[in-house]
Amino acid sequence: MNIYEKLQIIQGKLKVPKDLYNSFGKYSYRSAESILESVKPLLQEVKAVLTVSDEIKQIGDRIYVESTATLIDTEKGEKIEISALAREDENKKGQDSAQTTGSTSSYARKYALNGLFCIDDTKDADATNQHGKGPVQKPQTKPVPPTAPPQQEHKLPTNLIKALHAIRTKNGVDEEHFKSGIGKALHRKITSLHELTEVEAKSIIKSLGDK
């Protein structure tokens, strides 16, 4: 098994939950330490070791920490390296210079490990660089209106339906014209004879029967 096959196994099995919570920014997140703790058993399984190192770099007038995560095959000596940069915040309130560098190192190490092990952090508050500057907006979902239960069709007694059809046949009127005539008399649209109430049906039968 080569180093890439071992990395593939680690990437497929590694699960790192967001076990930390920022109460100020109201978001959950994972740290570099969380990733390291979760990956250790898998390193033992595939016979590999992981190292993470930092290097301070100055680009223009800015200070960056470059962290490199290196996966080393203990059987063949092969290795894979992934690096990530994080810039020190010049105006980090409440921290001295050592704390600022340490915090920046943690971010750089986290993203180097993310890249090496294919950990998706795009939905993390870190990825949007908010760090408590604004609340994380939850997606708005529109409430689904309750579905009205289907209306059951009113059923006229069979004898009344038969009587209505008998009168229609006797007068030589097709069903659509028959329903249309009844609808005009009742001042509403009739699509089925079953829409009639018993009182209406009996009244129509009596009226047409008398004629």
Radius of gyration: 38 Å
Query: Helix segment count?
Result: 6
**Secondary structure: number of strands:** 5
Mean pLDDT: 80
Structural class: alpha+beta
H-E string: HEEHEEEHHHH
Shape: rod-shaped
Placed side by side, the strands forming the largest sheet appear as 3-4-5
- Overall structural domain count: 2
The profile of the biggest β sheet is: 3 strands, antiparallel
Distance between the termini: 98 Å
Defining key terms:
6 helices, about 210 residues, alpha+beta, three-stranded antiparallel β-sheet, two-stranded antiparallel ribbon, rod-shaped
Descriptive overview:
There is one protein chain. The protein is α+β, with helices and mostly antiparallel strands and 211 residues long. It folds into 2 domains: 3-117, no CATH class; 158-210, no CATH class. The chain has 6 helices and 5 strands. The protein has helices at 3-13, 32-46, 97-117, 158-170, 175-186, 198-210, and strands at residues 20-22, 27-29, 48-59, 62-73, 79-87. Strands 3-4-5 form a 3-stranded antiparallel beta sheet. Strand 3 and strand 4 form a beta hairpin. Helix 2 (32-46) crosses helix 3 (97-117) and helix 4 runs parallel beside helix 6. 16% of the residues are buried. Mean pLDDT is 80; it is low at 127-138 and 148-152.
